[in-house]
Amino acid sequence: MISPSIFKAYDIRGIVDQTLTEDAARHIGRALALQGKARGVKQFVAGRDGRLSGPRLQSALAQGIREMGLDTIDVGMVTTPIVYYATYELNTGSGVAVTGSHNPPEYNGLKMMVAGDTLYGETIQALLQSIQSGATNQLAPTPGQSLSVDLGQRYLDRVTSDVKLARPLKIAVDCGNGVAGAFAARLYRAMGCEVTELFCEVDGNFPNHHPDPAHVENLQDLIRCLQETDAELGLAFDGDGDRLGVVTKSGKIIFPDRQLMLFAKDVLSRVPGGQIIYDVKCSRNVASYVRAHGGEPMMWKTGHSLVKAKLRETGAPLAGEMSGHVFFKERWYGFDDGLYAGARLLEILSKLADPNAALEALPDSPTTPELQLMCAEGENFSIMKTLSQHAKTSFANAQDIITIDGVRAEYADGFGLARPSNTTPVIVMRFEADTAQALQRIQGEFRAALLAIKPDAKLPF
Known about the structure:
The chain has 461 residues and is of the alpha/beta class. The chain is built from 15 helices and 20 strands. Strands 1, 2, 3, 4, 5, 6 and 7 form a seven-stranded mixed β-sheet that branches. The longest helix has 18 residues, at 436-453. It starts with 11 loop residues before the first strand and ends in an 8-residue tail after the last helix.
């Protein structure tokens, strides 16, 4: 029996040997192959991050794909973006990264592409249905072939052929013992940077800190390193290398929505009038900054798969998420890649006299980090459904109420957001305003609205 709980909105994720077993991986491989066959796919790329369970789960997954008659190409231990790159470079359009991303060591999972499309929502549920129906028990008469290709150097060469620095920079890089450590320092040195390495030894136990730059506590080592060395700038990566964190010399964290503004200004200088996609968790400053630089801002749902699909649909040159996923279509492939985003950041900053001043001067407002209201399984969706239904009366003072993903109430002087997480039973909230007083007022409206639905809610603000 396979556990339905591992089939999430944007990927597959579970606890190894409990909900995500080798047998489950093999059946998922077979289900993927069936989806691929229906779309004319002949080969799947497969790679893995640095987790200890990666080799055996990848092996079981690839076996399942081959049992359905399709070939597999093993690209080894690589970042998730290198798996995506391989699907373009090797012209398969289809691939699987075995990765637990930023989850604790006991987790692992799968991020999947079939025929050029990242799987999410219904296409992920279709894999489960295929397994439950018994379709994955009908094996092909002739199994597929297994190939191995090392694409690491080709990927690094592709980035360095695209991104050029105006001057060398001194940087510190914190990979949190994730798989980005196998490539980040090599890449930035090849670009001419002087690199101080922090936790770049790949270790699936993550002995130093969690590989997730979205959380301030995981950036403290990098902040200390910048204080104690002559490095000008700090870059941090998550467990599978598809998200970027940025820290200035003075220890200020440049959150991804502010990074996106800098990237947008650069991209719009070459693509005037271009559409820039950002998710509902991002600052109001993104839209005004994009407009000021001649672009068209477009707010969209949170989720790397959803943003990637929207980018593909619209042809936008750039998209970004508050979580740190940045998607460059201009000069690149349109997938999220933390190392490449870091390279593009260094390219922009290398042309400036004072990179740190430029980063710290990006528009900023009083804001909260991502806040979470813990719920029972499924309760986050029922609460949000009720909140959405009563949004007009609950947030009567708002100028606009956006419901593409949860409820985002826009005011003249700020915004409040509540949305159900698609991966864990929580409601995610974020608030921003022009002043601390406005921030408190907006939080007060959300507090009243949420407590009216769930009086015993333990709100984190």
